[in-house]
Amino acid sequence: MTLRVAASIGDRLLDRALATAVARAGAPGRIRFTERQLYYELCRVLRPSHAVPRRLPLTPAPPVRYERFEEALRRHGAVPGLLAPVPAPVSAPAPIPVPASADAPRDPSDPSDPSGPSEPDLYDYGLPRLLVCQSRQVARMLLANDVHLEAACPVFAADDLPLDPRLVTGLGRVDGATVHVLHDASVDGIALAARVRDAVPGVRVSSMGLVPRHATALHLISPRGPAPGSGPPALPAALEPRERDWLAEGRYAEVESVAPARLLRTVLRLVRGPRTPGHSVWTGLRELRTAGFMTWPTNRPGDTRTQGDKPATRNPVQG
């Protein structure tokens, strides 16, 4: 009887925390979000480690199991803005119609071809940028929030690789075209950039992160998985020794553990590229306030550097 009452109280507390998480995940402006993003928002409600000063590196473990979150979500009912899970791939997908000649390119204007765009001349233009996400759920969330329209940037998932050769050709038509890669702070995630480089030879590939120092600076929830085997993928030389140690412990942080609004703001800013506004005290303060998780302020107002650049001042992630 006592255990049943305690469980009931625990469920009520979890339900209240979930209601708070639902309100936060969609703010501001009715953002669409995934189920895992809502789970991590619940974790932040239960354990507000994001309020700890950023100079203290911290990647706390989840305060609640995912199974308990799913139970609370079922009790909560419909959640505005929550995206339905991506259907699992079937073992035997339906065949895609092919043209008479297997060597001939598909006709993009053919309505029976699901892989072709509705505009027949789409591939005749140059493509300045493209975004590849490790997670299909993250790619779907960005598309649902119109990132591809606001940034004029197609969004794909890693399992869409290799890309349509016509897309690669379009990237080659633009000087400085860039393929951005958004991945988890994990061994497999960090290795994704090299995989994308192999898929788009001759095109610049830029990793947005996450990497372990982003996770520790933002105090992201970090589950622990099995430690990498004896032959993990080669890690970039830019990773610090403590980041390698963090990965060697089996730690990881998912892109979905970043708050939805922050994720959208940062992706848009990095994909669009640097701006050159007139510098003033007020524009500098606005830039610092909206700085995302892959940049840090420098000694020039309005100037930010990405993880691949050398910071002009001391990196706050390094403490």
Present the secondary structure layout.
Blueprint: H1 2-25, H2 35-46, H3 66-76, E1 129-133, H4 136-144, H5 147-150, E2 155-157, H6 165-172, E3 178-182, H7 187-199, E4 204-209, H8 212-218, H9 241-248, H10 260-272, H11 281-289, E5 296-297, E6 304-305
Parallel strand pairs: 1-2, 1-3, 3-4
Antiparallel strand pairs: 5-6
What is shown here, in short?
The chain is built from eleven helices and six strands. With 319 residues, it is α/β, with parallel strands linked by helices.
Notable traits:
single chain, 319 residues, alpha/beta, four-stranded parallel β-sheet, two-stranded antiparallel ribbon, 11 helices, 6 strands, 7% strand, globular, disordered C terminus
How would you describe this structure to a colleague?
- The protein is of the alpha/beta class and 319 residues long.
- It has a 4-stranded parallel β-sheet, sandwiched between helices.
- Helix 1 crosses helix 3.
- The longest helix is centred in the first third of the chain and has 24 residues.
- The C terminus is likely disordered.
